Predict the structure.
Amino acid sequence: MPELPEVETVANGMHARVAGERIVRIWTSGKPQTFKTPEAELTQALTGSAIESVRRVGKTIVMTVSGKKQAVEFLIHLGMTGRLLVCDSGQPMAPHTHAILTLADGREVRFVDPRRFGRLSIHKPSEKKPDAPASYTGPGREPLTISADDFVALFRHRKTPIKAALLNQSLLHGVGNIYADESLFRAGIRPRRQAGRLTRDELLRLRKALIEVLRQAIKLGGSSVSDYVDADGVRGFFQLQHKVYMRGGEPCLVCKTPIQRITLAGRGTHFCPNCQH
C-alpha cells in the first residue's frame, strides 16, 4: 500500500500538473466499492469546477476544487494498488480504470485500481458541526510536523508493541509497514517493545529517525515495491535504500547479523536482532 512518501510524491506531481485547470467532464466505472460518495453526487460536485490545489493528508490525496457554491475537496485514497495518473486523452485506457476527470486543456486525470481497495469521495464542510474543520484533516497526527512533546504523549501508557502503534492511523497517519520498519531500525528499537515502556529519549530518537526516513523517501520519489508509480507513471527509488524491509535472512548492512522476519500486528516485520534492542 502506498504510504506517506508515495502519496506525497503523487500529490505534489498532481499539483504541479493540474492546479488551475478546469474539470469539464467526469467518467466513472460504476464499481460500487470504489466510491464512498455516490457517483452522481461526485460528478455534480466536480464537473465545471477549477482545481485550486492538490495536497496530501496522511495517506489521502486531497484535491481542492472551487465548486458552484463553495469549495469542496475530492479525496482519493490509493488503497493497495491505486494509481493516479495525468494522461493525454488519446492514450489507451488501462484496465481497471475507475474514474477519469477530463480537463479543459484536453488532458485526463485517471484513477486506476486493479484490486479496488482505493476509495473516492467528496468532503464538504459539516453543516451539522459548524465548529468542525472546514478542510479534511485525516484520522491522526501528521508525522512530519508533530512536536517532540506531542509525539512522546501519543505513546504514553500504550501496551501495544511500538510497531503496531506506529501503524495505528488514529495516532500518526501516513506511516505504514515500510517506514515503520525502517525507522525502528535507524532508531535502534525492536518492533516488539511495548510502546508505553519506551523512554522519552528512545521516543525522541524514533521521532527523529521517522522524520529523516520519510523526508529521504519523499526526495527519492517513494518506494516502488509493488504497483506504486508517480503521477507520470514513474517508479520511486527509496527501495534501494531499505536497510531491513523485505531483507529477511540477508546480512544487516551495519553488523552483518541476518535480518529477522516476524509477523507482528498481522504484518511482516523486519529487524536486526543485534542493532535493535
Notes: Residues 148-271 form a domain with the Helicase, Ruva Protein; domain 3 fold (CATH 1.10.8.50).
